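2024-03-11 09:14:02 DEBUG pipeline.ingest accepted 1 chain
2024-03-11 09:14:02 DEBUG pipeline.ingest length=180
2024-03-11 09:14:03 DEBUG pipeline.predict start
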Amino acid sequence: MKSSPYDRLLESCREAGVTPSRICLVASIPEQRLRLYEDGKSLKACSMSSSKRAPSCEENSFGTPWGLHEVSEKIGEGEPEGMVFKGRQPTGQRYWEYPEKERAKNLITSRILRLRGLEQGLNAGGSCDTFDRYIYIHGTNHEEAIGKPASSGCLQLTNADVIELFDLVPENNLVLILKD
């Protein structure tokens, strides 16, 4: 029998020597689902989009990295839904205020949960460092693509879902990304 997503998080924590956080996220690339847990209880599950490319922890691969991570930084508190971020800074415009050519791109919107890998040689350090690759959980202006691979490596959520998770998940709490 396959382990539950939360059991897999606990197993990853044991292997990495990391204490599980009370609140944590588990993202499944095959399922295109993100789950929020508190004290082992599933509180929310939502559709997400991972990379259009195969999962990969290597820089310049544009693949979604897997393994144990933490939320290293939360960006965008208090910004209106749909705010566009460039270089992790709000631009002052929401995505629908951009010209059509810009809106055709996958924009980073509403909130950013920046991830840091916790497994040296897998998603931390060297050419596989999730933090140095600027991998986030964030909103998107292409919510119609949520639920199927659509990103360039990040985990994309609807704007409403990313705002809700931003408010519920503290910095330094754990995120496990499953590739199988």
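2024-03-11 09:14:41 DEBUG pipeline.report The chain has three helices and ten strands.
2024-03-11 09:14:41 DEBUG pipeline.predict end
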